[in-house]
Write a structure and sequence with these properties.
1 helix; elongated; about 70 residues
Length: about 70
């Protein structure tokens, strides 16, 4: 006897396609990631400072950081 779950009328496989909003969100995230990478590479090439990528509520793609210096003994 065959399994009835796939051969039963009305049984369907859910083939969900991403919605347009999900597609746009994903494309936007990839674009931001590419911008962050480019900004970080540019900053490292043209500055002697240290930078990190981090989400910012002000729209900054990279943030400058101060290195921790060991106290002189």
């Amino acid at each position: 006897m065959q399994s009835q779950s796939m051969n039963t009328p009305g049984a369907s496989i859910s083939l969900s396609r991403p919605s347009l909003k999900e597609f746009r969100d994903n494309a936007e995230q990839q674009h931001i990631a590419a911008q962050q990478k480019a900004a970080l590479q540019h900053a490292h090439a043209h500055s002697s400072g240290f930078f990190i990528t981090q989400d910012s509520s002000f729209g900054n793609l990279i943030l400058p950081v101060l290195p921790r210096l060991e106290p002189e003994s």
